[in-house]
Amino acid sequence: MIWLGSCKDADTPAEEHNEQAFNNTDMERDADFVMKAATASMAEIELGNLAMANGALPEVKQFGQTMVTDHTAANEELRAAAQPKNIALPVAPTDAQLKKAEELRGKTGADFDKDYIDLMVKDHKDVIDAFEKEAEKGNDPDLKTWAGAKLPALRHHLQMAEELQQRLKK
After folding, report:
1. How far apart are CA 97 and CA 42, in angstroms?
2. DSSP-based three-state secondary structure for 29
3. Is residue 102 exposed (0-12), middle (13-18) or buried (19+ Cβ within 10 Å)?
4. Under 8 Å CB-to-CB from 72, ≥6 apart: which residues?
5. Which CATH superfamily groups domain 12-169?
6. Does 3 have pLDDT greater than 50?
7. 153 and 70 in contact (C-beta within 8 Å)?
8. Which end of the chain is more exposed for a tag (fewer CB within 10 A), N or C?
9. What three-state secondary structure class fits 108?
10. Residue 82, class by beta-carbon neighbours within 10 Å (0-12 exposed, 13-18 middle, 19+ buried)?
11. Could you report the per-residue pLDDT of 89-119, keeping only the tens digit for each?
């Protein structure tokens, strides 16, 4: 997951809705987490599709497929958890996330594999940290539970990416 600070460029109407609805409330932090988690998952889906198309190693292509499958399901779950709380979700990754995808789009083969997997390792470390914080300090019990429930899969993604990263270094 590409976890970047601001979601404002991802979906201004959703961001504006959430700011108006939750500004200075207990749910503000949770709504911000939901926005970031959603854009990060959408970016993972985009990058996973690129990995299936541009990757050289079958394992990188399979990792990309896993990202598409798992993050599509996670976004559906997140949408179901956010809707009753009136948290608006973005419709696309952030501009910064799309820029990362565009940089990778021009690469193929071993160059793509290395850069994609390096990005996956870095981003999964960032995402795990954010999900741990939400699971511990979030205000909404449903979102806290959801974040905690996603941690094993995220840690598994990181482990898979680190193993691929080591293989690519050889």
Report:
1. 9
2. helix
3. exposed
4. 41, 45
5. Ferritin, core subunit, four-helix bundle (1.20.1260.10)
6. no
7. yes
8. C
9. coil
10. buried
11. 888 888 888 899 999 999 999 999 999 999 9
